[in-house]
Amino acid sequence: MIDFTDNKYSNLFEKQKAHQLTIGKTTYKDRIKKLKRLQVAIEKTYKQELRDALYKDFKKPQLEVDLTEIYPVVDEIKFISKHLKSWLRNQKVDTPISLLGSSSWIKNESKGVCLIISPWNFPVNLTFGPLVSAIAAGNAVILKPSEMTPHTSKVMSKIVSELFNENEVALIEGEVEVSQELLKLPFNHIFFTGSPQVGKIVMKAASEHLTSVTLELGGKSPVIVDDTSNLDKAVKKIIFGKFLNAGQTCIAPDYVLINESIKSEFIKSFKKHLKDFYSEDVSNSDSFGRIVNQKHFERLNGYLEDAKFRNASITIGGNSEEKENYIEPTVVFDASEDSELMQNEIFGPILPVKTYTSISEVLDYINSKEKPLALYIFSSNKKRINEIINNTRAGSTCINHNLLQFLNHNLPFGGSNNSGIGKSHGYFGFLEFTNQRSVLKQHTLGAVDLLTPPYTNFKQKLVD
Ligand code: NAD
């Protein structure tokens, strides 16, 4: 047995461990009551504080906070509250004739003590969203939000300590070192949202205790726009998906592949809709956020400098303001394959666009890269849409729009390999925090003892 007594968080962990079976025995009604308290806190009591905190952290527009941080968590609570009773019911399954005299069922039991590590880009949504699934499944939880959005973490910490005893849910604020220390503990499940690089660190740490993991990661999500799409609508939707949260969205379009024949129309439409959304001077628009900090501002500006150096063409935008961590919505054509823009997940308001002449070219290009978290298709050609879906792999796909797949609780949300392991949302998120325990009960009457010695000729004949 490894001794954890010198770990800074071992006391808290032990408290939760001692309490986990009690939480695991709570009814669906008890759990819904807890979830409803969380709903009231974020939807009413602390709504304005959360909005203010997110504005201080990176000038997130208020309506974006309501729609992308608060609403998805509230909606998840409502959805789960509707279904939890049936998810917690033992699920009877058939028992084969060879096990005559037995009955079988699946019991969805809690995993135990879980760790949730979340990123900064949608800090409320991506901390409380998984928490909702974990509570629904009857777990004790330690939350570690990102150090990059400290104002929001502070309000979330206040909410958690007001609503929960720490032997049930606790939130620990702090830097990377906090995660590193927590990751040494033998959690029963770790739910991590963040970059693939840190995902690998989390998985390595989890392997030490054979802790199960959910990894919600990132990557480069492509958008394909073909010559049969409604171009004007497609462009409008891409601008929404790309520049929401100033491009700092895991499922935002990372780059666009357009049919060569629609290039000039694409640029014209892009300029028009950008102006309609954010006015002539985007820096003065209340609808456009900022880059989270100077480090990421410099990273993104570095990508732009590198693209220029490699002769890419900055077709739209390209301006920035260091004082504000502001980067203008920017469209880049002809970024070379070895450029930073095409090698890394961009996670900011810069959109490289490449042209293609055939769909097979598009498929080869996408398949030469890691599996994306999302793949988007704008087309009205059904056959081509199917061809693209059947010949690629991705965590999710949205046809003729983007981002919306995140909002349907009936769809699993997550990546595949480099973009993630495991799924979240609705029943899929609940399952992630659940052990599906198999139970087989042999009834005394009618039991056939075929399996026990002595292995007589009679038993052999029955098997033959
Ligand atoms: P990140 O991986 O840098 O950090 C995420 C969390 O991990 C933070 O809480 C941080 O404190 C912690 N962390 C960072 N380094 C660590 C280390 N060495 N050891 C242990 N913990 C560590 O990610 P980020 O910058 O906060 O978020 C951006 C990334 O997250 C992007 O790649 C984005 O695509 C991805 N993301 C994915 C989803 C999804 O649902 N799939 C959602 C949002 C963001």
From TrEMBL:
It comes from the Bacteria. Keywords: NAD, Oxidoreductase. Residues 12-439 form the Aldehyde dehydrogenase domain. The keyword Transcription regulation does not apply. The active site is at E216. PROSITE patterns: ALDEHYDE_DEHYDR_CYS, ALDEHYDE_DEHYDR_GLU. InterPro entries: Ald_DH/histidinol_DH, Ald_DH_C, Ald_DH_CS_CYS, Ald_DH_CS_GLU, Ald_DH_N, Aldehyde_DH_dom, Aldehyde_DH_NAD(P). It holds the Pfam family Aldedh. PANTHER family: ALDEHYDE DEHYDROGENASE (PTHR43570), ALDEHYDE DEHYDROGENASE ALDX-RELATED (PTHR43570:SF20). Belongs to the aldehyde dehydrogenase family. This is Aldehyde dehydrogenase.
